[in-house]
Amino acid sequence: MDLHLSKEQEMLRKMYHDFAENEVKPLAQEVDEDERFPMETVEKMSKLGMMGIYFPKEYGGAGGDVLSYAMAVEELSKVCGTTGVIVSAHTSLCCAPIYEHGTEEQKKKYLPKLCSGEWIGAFGLTEPGAGTDAQGQQTTAVLEGDHYVLNGSKIFITNAGVANVFVIIAVTGHHLNAKGRKIKDISAFIVERDFKGFSVSKPEKKMGIRGSSTSELVMEDCIVPKENLLGKEGQGFKIAMETLDGGRIGIASQALGLAEGAIEETVKYTKERVQFGKRISQFQNTQFQLADMYAKTEAAKWLVYSAAMKKQNHEPYTVDAAMAKLVAAETASDVTRRCVQLFGGYGYTREYPVERMMRDAKITEIYEGTSEVQRIVISGHLGLK
Amino acid sequence: MAEFNSKDTAAFKGVWVFCEQREGVIMSTTYQLLSEGRKLANDLGVELCGLLLGHNIKEEYVKGLGGYGADRVYVCDSELLKTYTTDGYAKVICDAVKEKKPEVLLIGATNIGRDLGPRCAARLHTGLTADCTHLDVDTEKYKAFLKTTSTIDVDHTPFENNTNLKMTRPAFGGHLMATIICPRFRPQMSTVRPGVMKTQPYDEAGAQKVVVENLNIALKKDDIHVEVLDVEKAAKKMVDLIGADVVVSVGRGISKDVEKGIKIAQDLADVLGGVVGASRAVVDAGWISSDHQVGQTGKTVHPRIYVALGISGAIQHQAGMQDSECIIAINKNADAPIFDISSYGIVGDLFKVVPMLTEAIKALEASK
Amino acid sequence: MKVIVCVKQVPDTSGVVAVKADGTMDRSSMATITNPDDMNAVEAALQLKEKTGCEVIVVSMGPPPAEGMLREILARGADRAVLVSAREFGGSDTYATSQILAAAIKKIGVGPEDIVFCGRQAIDGDTAQVGPQIAEKLGMPQVTYVADIKVEGKDLVVKRMLEDGFMMLKVQTPCLLTCIKELNEPRYMSVGGIFECYSKPLDVFNYEALKDDPLVDLDTIGLKGSPTNVYKSFSPPLKGASVMLEGADKATCEKLVGILDGKHLI
Fold it and tell me: Labelling A79: which of A238, B50, C38, C232 has CA 20 to 30 A away?
């Protein structure tokens, strides 16, 4: 068992780090304060192959692996949580389901432009009445000849305001199960922004990741060609859950990056700040707090990397991804909060980045499956009934 | 001409200085080099010769080189030398050196000098030391220099006693000083950093008795492989950092409000009769043009007063200003390295302190 | 058409630098990077490749660890790398280095349309000498301090910076250009490039490969043969600690002005 990164992964780490420091960090405060989607960063990342890291070259990807992708989200999130989730949602929630479940035609049509960053991707599962209770889907998709007609709305969709391609989950019908209960048939569709009847409405005002474009999708008699059914009718829920498994690795990486970035800023600050005639880094409270945070973050890191490697090796990784997200997200919230505390009053102001990191971290405990959902997955694995 | 052999060191005599001119005007670095060359020529007991290439250079400028120490000036006048080209200048200089065999050749480390020097050294099969800040041929003088500028235990270190040119220069971004020698080859070539050597006072008598000799070096159009299409001066007048009495420099500490930071620095410079300089970080960020840059890759200055605002004092910056007479540093970080080399330091917010300082100086002027 | 780029791996002198007790640099304490001006040279070569489809070959003289740096440049889009490495070459000054690199470039082969790019100067030696000296050894025209390049048929129209302005020059290939930071913005390695770089060719030219080239005068290479050598090296002594003034208010400024006035500095 070799816990070392490959030569290529070390080079990637270096490139991601330099890119994040030079191109992403200078914009982070403005992106947050002005709630501005950093399109110029997406263009730069596209040129470097960062919008399709682990997809094969034949589909326009960079030919990398899942861990290389996780590291990208991690390094970006160290300096900007918004930029990290842009890459994560695009890659894991849109490119991945098309890659894993698409027909050859669908893959050839959508993946090259998604991987090159020419198109940005998004995923529509959540609805006003269906959050954690994803089965509460109400969006319908009715087959009429050569196309489906979709009706319904999706909320809290990441990248919505800028995406060109959406993987949308909708109810295509019902069947009766063995006990005679009516069960929904849920299916997945590839929907393009300019399909008739599709619109994106006002952006959501959020506590954190304020530069991330989060909006509602509205489908009113939205026409989706039959060929855009992803997988088979009725497979949609399974596709959605598998997609979220991969997405959890991305969000866990985002949380990991936020925690690491906060620790780095705090180490730097405490070595400069003088109180009572000493640098506050010389006080044992500071030292012990940071030691705890550092060790916990390292532990989260190995859960994230292990989940990524299992996915790469096509081993079952659902529980690993759930653990990684649960631990990384709760660590990120805890670490960023404690870092603000170590900064004291200055940490509460927007002059320093830690308050933004704390606001950014909170969402990682909620989206792509709340921490409670992750606990359901893990306890299910333990066979606890 | 006999075969030129750069290893035959005994055959070489004389100190030469390449006298750079642009558009017919002698560069100030030329006068600095002649002053320095004069000292070396005196120590060696040999002639100091200037080497002047150009077209229709005014006689008063040519003779003026004698006023700054040259015994003899070799002139090569050709229309092909009016504007600098590597090929034209290198051919004339190398042919002259091969014929007359000077033991030392100094060139100013200007953009042109640093293009010309290495080309010539490679052609002459000799060594070249770049960007020198101090030169000695006399061993005792060199030892005295080391005593004041290094931590070497000079009295208990062996030194060979010879008149090899000892060329001292900063290396590793300024972290280290190295003295280089070129013992086995001639001429010993050195490019010298502009603004470092002191220019001696002009001596009319020297100008009167300087011997001017024309070099008969055939230069053909075919010798030059680059075509000069245009020479342009930058539209904006460049700031004269090297000649300034007072320099007020800004560093990364102005990032919160770049425009205001430069303005208050300019205000302070104005009341002190100085100019605004900048650290490399400020230039790289695009907040000010590169002609303001002080440091290892910028300009070296030694003004009477150097004020460092929000500059941490990285060694590359120090290399450009550490010899200033009085260094005043204002920085909000008490541990900034700039405070290790400054004469006076204030730990505080430059945006608050600098305007107060400017006011205090105005008040002082008013009271006089 | 080929573009050959010379690069050097150098200690990062802008970071933490340790000096040993004997006054020499503690190289092991410093991170290594690709010399910044050389990255501009690499970028210029890659931009030409995008325009003309030419081959980009990157060359470096250095110890074996320089391979890592060459792979990083291959990851940015260069096609082939050559590492010039031998114990006999170690300790070379710029004259010695330029002979060896010129011989290596000759071995790679320079055609009538080809260009050699170098960075203006390296941040450890800070001499800016190797580029022009290679040009002299290869007998090709040079332009230094290049801030802009345009290809016009067989010619290159180049902007060459002076301290207070610039020259526009026309030069024919083959020629050597030294690049400054104003020339371009070096690109990052790409993800795809990183996964390909270890399968691109990297050759090592050792002593045997170059020793018989007439450009290499074996008496003038390496530490012993170099025309220039280090006589003494030392670190400048730390100046005495400064007079730190109390506070940062109006009274402090007035006090400072008083001191400066007393010393007739203002």
Answer: C38
